[in-house]
UniProtKB/TrEMBL annotation:
One of its GO terms (cellular component) is nucleotide-activated protein kinase complex. SUPFAM superfamilies: CBS-domain pair (SSF54631). GO terms for molecular function: AMP binding; protein kinase binding; protein kinase regulator activity. Coiled coil: none annotated. Residues 119-183, 195-254, 269-327 form the CBS domain. Pfam families: CBS. This is CBS domain-containing protein. Belongs to the 5'-AMP-activated protein kinase gamma subunit family. SMART domains: CBS. Keywords: CBS domain, Repeat.
Length: 331
């Protein structure tokens, strides 16, 4: 039998491919340094710090993560994120008798906590800020990291220095702001390209406890749970970062509170939730990213019923890898 001819590309497909290829080329000639603003602050935490102190520092500074520094070895030691606090909560659930010890734990105990609860160790990934941005994106996708520290080496002292942290959002916004002429070519709809997750969605109700929702996030290895009503209508979204205000002051008992109560503790500057429809086009998703601090889009129908979730990792994966058959030799 003669091999079947590949289907000719439609004009829509051709534009989409051209847009994606141009964005990929752009990412190969830009570095992580290019993404950084001219002036920024960087809060780095010493691993000798008490975990409960680190929590207050994050809250006081309205940040949700910070790179870690081991001053004994004078080396970068990973990044503190909401996943670490979720691990601490799991530790509290598994070893309730050790509650008094929990207060004394320092950031350098995080790896022991991880081992004690049997969590998959968090890889200490970093990238050099002068490497192509494309590489940083691939590292993020491979390790499922939503943020990645940029670590340079001082040429005089040969010592490591943490330059900044880049997030999936910053990268996608950088693409959106500098590539409008390419993102307008992405006219296929979310439905056409199957962007996001549409089956086996993990959801919760306002009355569920924060602990139940945290367990759901851990079991499914996801960073957000849509909160729906009895008719599957979207009410809100509980995100991994929402855990931080819940354990403020080291009071873990408050985790028995409902999701509804926990969401009231969100800081005023929280970006809120963004929704889209299945027929929205990829260019409009980039428009939203260009204009707003969006961390995911929840796909709803005309009746506001939950249909799916588009995480920034889904968007980044699509932009980098869709249509690429062999990615085995990509570092
Ligand atoms: P994230 O953890 O947000 O980076 O998402 C990782 C993957 O899980 C992405 O492919 C998302 O579409 C998917 N995802 C995110 N949240 C949920 C959820 N609540 N239920 C099912 N899948 C999800």
């Amino acid at each position: 039998m003669a091999p079947s001819e590949p289907k000719p590309l439609s004009p829509l497909d051709k534009d989409q491919l051209q847009g994606l290829n141009s964005i990929r080329e752009f990412l190969k000639v830009r570095t992580s340094y290019d993404v950084l603003p001219l002036s920024f602050r960087l809060i780095v935490l010493d691993t000798e710090l008490l975990i409960k102190k680190s929590l207050s520092i994050l809250i006081q500074n309205s940040i949700v993560s910070a790179p870690l520094w081991d001053s004994r070895t004078a080396r970068f030691a990973g990044i503190l994120t909401s996943t670490d606090f979720i691990n601490v909560i799991q530790y509290y659930c598994q070893f309730p008798d050790e509650m008094s010890k929990l207060d004394q734990f320092r950031l350098n105990s995080l790896r022991d906590i991880e081992k004690a609860i049997g969590a998959v160790p968090i890889e200490t990934v970093s990238v050099h800020p002068s490497k192509p941005l494309f590489e940083a994106c691939l590292r993020m996708l491979k390790t499922r990291a939503r943020r990645i520290p940029l670590v340079d080496v001082d040429s005089e002292t040969n010592k490591e220095m943490v330059v900044s942290v880049i997030t999936q959002y910053r990268i996608l916004k950088f693409i959106a702001v500098n590539n409008e002429h390419n993102t307008v070519l992405l006219k296929k709809t979310v439905l056409d390209i199957g962007l996001g997750t549409y089956s086996k969605l993990a959801t919760a109700r306002m009355s569920d406890s924060v602990l139940d929702v945290i367990h759901l996030m851990v079991d499914q290895n996801i960073s957000c749970i849509p909160i729906v009503d009895g008719n599957n209508r979207l009410l809100n979204v509980f995100e991994a970062v929402d855990v931080i205000p819940c354990i403020k002051g080291g009071i873990y008992e408050e985790l028995d509170a409902s999701v509804g109560e926990a969401l009231c503790k969100r800081p005023d500057e929280s970006p809120g939730i963004y929704t889209c429809g299945e027929n929205d086009r990829m260019d409009s998703i980039f428009d939203t990213i260009r204009k707003s601090r969006v961390h995911r889009l929840i796909v709803v129908d005309d009746d506001n019923k939950l249909k799916g979730i588009i995480s920034l990792s889904d968007v980044l994966k699509y932009v980098l890898l869709s249509g690429v058959e062999d990615t085995s030799n990509w570092s």
